[in-house]
Design a protein that fits this description.
The protein is an alpha/beta fold. It folds into two domains: 29 residues; 125 residues, Cupredoxins -  blue copper proteins (Immunoglobulin-like). The chain contains three helices and eight strands, in the order H-H-E-E-E-E-H-E-E-E-E. The strands form two sheets. Strands 2-8-7-4-5 form a five-stranded mixed beta sheet, with no helix packed on it. It starts with a helix and ends with a strand.
Length: 156
């Protein structure tokens, strides 16, 4: 009986791995990668990202710049629903020591990367919100939101 149970368990596990679309096969793929580029013109290469509720995502952000990191760097900050991007960016501009992420406002952020200077790439893994809707993402480096460095994650 013990051998049969073990064989049945192994057969079931093998079938789950081999069958496309199963939970185990999907988990083996890992998160869907969203590749972003930030440039000196204060733009993300993608201003709209779509995702399914709860989908596993990995945002990678590469900075293309001719300037030093102290004067031009980018991050990806996904804001919680209802957070006003310009107001958040103003508070973030005062948080240089924490890479422009205000410690008192962490509850207003769903996910954030570190800053990436010229030629650097940063990433963050997260699950898309489970509630369908529009979620704003921004770069919190001073002046970048007002320059247009923002986008929307659409969960549907």
């Amino acid at each position: 009986m013990r051998i049969r149970t073990t064989l049945t368990t192994l057969t079931l596990a093998a079938a789950m791995i081999a069958a496309p679309g199963t939970v185990m096969a999907q988990a083996a793929k890992g998160p869907r990668v969203i590749a972003l580029v930030g440039t000196d013109n204060l733009q993300f290469s993608l201003t709209t990202i779509t995702a399914k509720p709860g989908e596993a995502l990995r945002v990678t952000l590469n900075t293309k710049s001719m300037q030093p990191k102290t004067t031009m760097a980018h991050n990806f900050v996904l804001l919680a629903p209802g957070v006003e991007p310009s107001g958040f960016a103003m508070a973030a501009a005062m948080a240089r020591s924490t890479e422009y992420i205000p410690a008192a406002a962490k509850d207003k952020i769903l996910v954030a990367t570190r800053l990436a200077g010229a030629g650097e790439t940063v990433s963050a893994d997260f699950k898309a919100p489970t509630k369908p809707g529009r979620y704003i993402y921004i770069c919190t480096f001073p002046g970048h939101v007002s320059g247009g460095m923002k986008g929307v994650l659409i969960v549907k």
